[in-house]
Specification:
Number of strands: 0
Helix content: over 70%
Order of helices and strands: HHHHHH
Largest sheet: none
Structural class: mainly alpha
Radius of gyration: 18 Å
């Protein structure tokens, strides 16, 4: 598809919502298997509400889950728009993809390290770092796959970026 047929904002929001939904479904499955449905969004929502200082809101499981869910989907929509913008910029400058790949790897390792550190504390109520890590990996794969399908020339752009050749 030609670049003019792609809307960066719309495409990014779709990618972000697909990724956020993937995480939500994964977490629901894990929590249900462990017989604690909504444990993870409750723990994350409660921590997030304390972090942003939202004491005026009711302190219930439903409020924690709703608060976290809204935050989660908005955050992933923003991330999706950023990724879509980068993919669209790569049409003109494929080398952007090489920098993005390096940044992605660094952010992922940082994310896994931070998650491991935080899960060792009581902040997240004993969530296992690997549960959140797998969710993040699945979300990344979904977003990457969405962009790969929407932009068939992305493979060629990655090759150019990694080979150091520009068109």
């Amino acid at each position: 598809m030609a670049a003019r047929n792609h809307n960066t904002i719309r495409e990014g929001i779709y990618a972000g919502l697909l990724s956020a939904t993937t995480i939500a479904v994964w977490i629901l499955i894990v929590d249900t298997i462990e017989r604690h449905a909504f444990f993870t969004p409750n723990a994350l929502g409660s921590s997030l509400m304390r972090f942003v200082g939202a004491p005026r809101l009711s302190d219930t499981v439903a409020m924690h889950v709703a608060f976290y869910t809204v935050f989660h989907f908005v955050a992933f929509a923003i991330i999706g728009v950023i990724v879509a913008w980068i993919v669209h910029q790569a049409r003109r400058t494929p080398a952007i993809l090489a920098g993005f790949l390096i940044l992605f790897v660094v952010v992922e390792f940082g994310f896994y390290g931070l998650t491991a550190m935080v899960s060792a504390t009581d902040v997240l109520g004993g969530l296992a770092w690997y549960q959140i890590g797998v969710a993040n990996l699945l979300a990344s794969l979904v977003m990457f796959s969405f962009m790969w399908i929407r932009h068939p020339d992305l493979k060629e752009q990655f090759t150019q970026a990694l080979d150091g050749t520009d068109v």
